[in-house]
Amino acid sequence: MADNIRVAPSTKLSMHYLRKMSAYVRTRDGCFPVLSWSMWRHIACGKLQLPEDLAWLYFETFDLLTDHSAVTRLEWAEGLSQCSSKSELDQQRNKLSVDTLKFLLFLYIQQLNRVSLRASLIGEGWPNRTRSPSPSDREAKTSMQNKNWDDQAHLVFVQSHLAEILELLVGPAQLSKSGQTSRDCQIPLEVVRSLDLLLEGSTNHNRTNVQPIHRLLSEDPLQSQAGYSALSCCFNLHKLLSCVQHVLTLNPFGMSACLRSGKKLAWDQQAEGPMKRAKIARNTHTAPHGSKIILMSQVMKQTLAKTSEKLIGSNVKLHRCSGAFIYLLSPLRSVTVDKCQDCTVVLGAVETSVHLHRCQNVQVVCVTARIIVSASSSCTVHALTPTRPLLLPGNAEITLAPFHTFYPSLEDHMASVGLAVIPNAWDQPLLLGSEGLMGPDPPCYRLLPPAEFHMLVVPFKMEGDTCEVPGGLPEQYQAALDEKERRIQKWQKTVMEAKLNKEQRLQFKELVEVKFHKWLLETGHRRELDSLIPPPTNVVNHCETGRAADAEHSRTGEVTMAS
Which ranges carry the C-CAP/cofactor C-like domain (predicted)? Predict the structure, then answer.
């Protein structure tokens, strides 16, 4: 699982209430083994007194992280786009259901604000020897103060709370009046499948053939260690607990391992100038689906551009970048922008979420299933998203704006991850705090005024058919662009009618260029344009995995995209 809601939940989702929910869902129609939206709304709003918007947020987020096909997601988006009233929206939502026990575990995970647990834990027989941290381990730890990427914290959490996790899976008939489990308590194999949400692994020390945890437990040697009975098709709870705790180890495809032994990316100019501090690594050559990671840390005052099959389906982390312009124009699984400042990040279609965390003066441009912003200031998000942007605590001066760019293969990339042009909820944020939904006062965000709106041009030549912003622009923003175009035409007409002589035209041209270059310097666009010019041939490293801003600057200003 690549993502999660990243704020402490309501106290109504504590273990006490989840135990009650675990018992309740097994006795009601429409609740078990799958939970419908209507029944979850009844439980969340009627029993737990949660706001409906918050109840839907949990339900929708869990569904977003479920492996649906792109076609299924596009069909769901089409259904939502045809809803014109609250009652029609309710009818559409009532068609959605989720795995009940996995959803219970998902809610439990929220208690400690843990994220990416499935992507950060492997339950299997790899060695788990205690050792002193190496320099690369310390580097990884320093780079991952964000708990969402802290593999060690995830491991400790599951080891410490596995007993409660298994308890949620036990039927109420096997619990005492005090809610305790007995020594001979049994868990059916079908129920153990729910642990696939959190754990996967392999019995192969070469870390190949990664499988869900229930499959590993269904075969020896783990089957006998976990107390499995072929007669009853059940596991003994306490033997299962002991077995899983014993074989848990750090994720060999996690962020720590990627920093320690991942394949480094050799971008152009890395050996000199501001790129010498950058750390860019990936595990995409070895990691299974869902666990592919690309890390880009401390990229300073550079333009990096990449479109490649190696990016497809990756979880990308941009960490402590400053003054950088980063273009990642391939279908991605998730993106986290952490502790970056003064950067522009332009992304391809992102399947699950884009998360800005502790950023300052960062502009992100993306098409994604979910936008999350936390503890950030003076950031702008240009998004096309079917869900309401999630604004978590600690934000200030966040600007939300419509998606305002395109590149030739964008619509193909969107279709490949199941993202449509409607519905588009970029301007309907949901403010979530530790006590639930928050009001707009004091405001931490604004919608970009149409008068400040400009298009973004992706300066790379690529193959594809997309030639305009998918879905078009909101009416008021298109009107603002049209007005600017009219002013340009009026200006050009005024210049032509002035009938300047050759010397006057030259003087006028020089004045305009001076003003233009001054504007480029003041806005920082001069550095962005300069960084698109490729370095001299003798310093170019044509490493296939590391072409950054690998461009040819023509007289028209077009640039060829690295691949």
Answer: 274-434
